[in-house]
Amino acid sequence: MALNSSLPYPNSPAAIPVVATLSSPFEKPPPSQDGPNGSTRKPNSLWPGMYQSPVTNALWEAGSKIFERFFLDPPKDAPPQSELLNKTPSQSRTSILYNFSTDYILREQYRDPWNEVRIGKLLEDLDALAGTISVKHCCDNDSTTRPLLLVTASVDKIVLKKPISVDIDLKIVGAVIWVGRSSIEIQLEVIQSATDGSDIADSVALSANFIFVARDSKTGKAAPVNRLSPETQREILLFEEAEARNNLRKRKRGGGDRREFENGELNRVKTLLAEGRIFCDMPALADRDSILLKDTCLENSLICQPQQRNIHGRIFGGFLMHRAFELAFSTAYAFAGLVPCFLEVDHVDFLKPVDVGDFLRFKSCVLYTEVQNPDQPLINIEVVAHVTRPELRSTEVSNTFYFTFTVRPEAKATKNGFRILNVVPATEEEARHIVERMDAQAFLSTKGVISK
C-alpha cells in the first residue's frame, strides 16, 4: 500500500516499521544480537517499558540514542538545560507502520474477535508514540545536562471515525502542535485506506491529542521546554486551535471542580431521582425500561508490575487506558446484551501517577444512555481507577475515563425489539454527577475544545 503518498506531510521521515514481537512456531530463531566488535549488546527487550507492544519495541529501536539519555545517570551536579531551542513540528514528526497485510504474527497480536484492531492495544500504542514525540521535542542533544521527566497529563477526546481493519496496513502519524511553558500537545492520526491514493480525510480512522508536562528530574518542579515554531498554514492553524483549547481548560480549572446548581439543573436532578426512589422504595412498580446505576457496575483489580513501567519507572498511561477500555467494553456488553461498538474516549486527566507495586482497582458503571436516535443509541461508561494502599487504609483516584459506545448494527439486526434501558440514580450524589457529565460533554462539544 502506498500510504505515504496520501499523507498531508510531504517531508515526513520514513515510517518506523512495526514487526511482531512474538515468534511463529514455524519460524527459525532470530539471529543473535552481537555488536559489531563481537560484544553482546543488551537486548532492547530488557530495558524498562519494553514489554508492552510491538510499537514500543519499534520506537525503542528507532530512537535508542535519544532514550539512552534517560537511563544514563548524569552527574549529581548536572545542570538543567541552559538555553531553550526553537524547534519545528517536522523535527518531532514520527510515524509508525503496521504491516498487517504481510505480517501474520503481528496481525494476530492485534486482532479482536470481529477481525478489527483491538482498540485497547491501539490506545496503549498512541500513548507510547506521543511519549516518544515529546522526548524528541524536548531533547537538547547535550549529554552533560539532566534530561526532563515527561509525563502524560491528559488526553483530549479520542474519536473513532471508522472501523479499523486488521487485514490492511495501518499508519500512525504524530507531531507536536503546541507548546506552553512546560506543557506539550501532540496530535496523532491513525490512517488506514482501502485503496491507494485515497483522500487523506477519508483515510483518517482515529484522531487523538495528548498533552504531556515536563518536570525537572531532580526537583520535580515544572520545567520549561523547547519552543515551537510552526511553519506551514496547517501547523499555524493547529497551534492556534490548541492555544484556544488550553485557555479554555485554564478557565474551566479556575472555576473549580464543584459548582452550585441552578434551578433548572436542580429540577433535572430531582427528575432523575424520582424514578430511582421508586426502584428503592417500590421495586415492583419500577419502570421496566430503566435500571439503577449501581446495578450496571463492574470492577477488576491488579498489582502494577515492573513490565508495565515506562522509561521513567512509572506505569504507562497507555496501559491504564488499555485496561480501562477493556473493562468499559465489558460493562457495555453486559448492559446491552449485544456486542458494543466503540465511538470515543472523552477528555482524560491523569491526576496521580501510578507506581510499580501499586494495588490498582478499576470500577465502572453505565453513567447514562442516550436513546433519541434509535439507529445509534449511546452508552456512556465511566471507569474510575483507584490506587489502593491496604497497609495505610487509603485509596486515591488516579484517573477517570469516560467511554462512549453504541451497538454494532449487524448485532442489533439479529435481535428484534432491541432496546437500551435508561439508567437512573439512587442517590442525589449520583444524580448530580450524571447532570455534571452531561453538561460538561455538551459544553466542550459546543465550544470546540476537543474538535479537530
Structure description:
One of its GO terms (molecular function) is fatty acyl-CoA hydrolase activity. One of its GO terms (biological process) is acyl-CoA metabolic process. Residues 34-43 have a biased composition (Polar residues). With 452 residues, this protein is of the alpha+beta class. It folds into two domains: 16-21 and 46-253, Hotdog Thioesterase (Thiol Ester Dehydrase, Chain A, Roll), CATH 3.10.129; 261-449, Roll (Thiol Ester Dehydrase, Chain A). Helices cover 30% and strands 25% of the residues. It contains eleven helices and 17 strands. The chain has helices at 54-62, 64-68, 89-92, 104-110, 119-138, 200-203, 233-254, 263-281, 317-336, 409-412, 428-447; strands at residues 16-18, 86-87, 94-98, 148-155, 158-160, 170-179, 183-191, 204-216, 227-228, 290-292, 298-303, 340-345, 348-349, 359-370, 378-389, 394-407, 422-424. Strands 1, 3, 4, 5, 6, 7, 8, 11, 12, 13, 14, 15 and 16 form a 13-stranded mixed beta sheet that branches. Strands 2-9 form a two-stranded parallel ribbon. The chain has a two-stranded parallel ribbon with strand order 10-17. Helix 5 (119-138) packs antiparallel against helix 9 and helix 8 crosses helix 11 (428-447). The chain is globular. It starts with 15 loop residues before the first strand and ends in a 5-residue tail after the last helix.
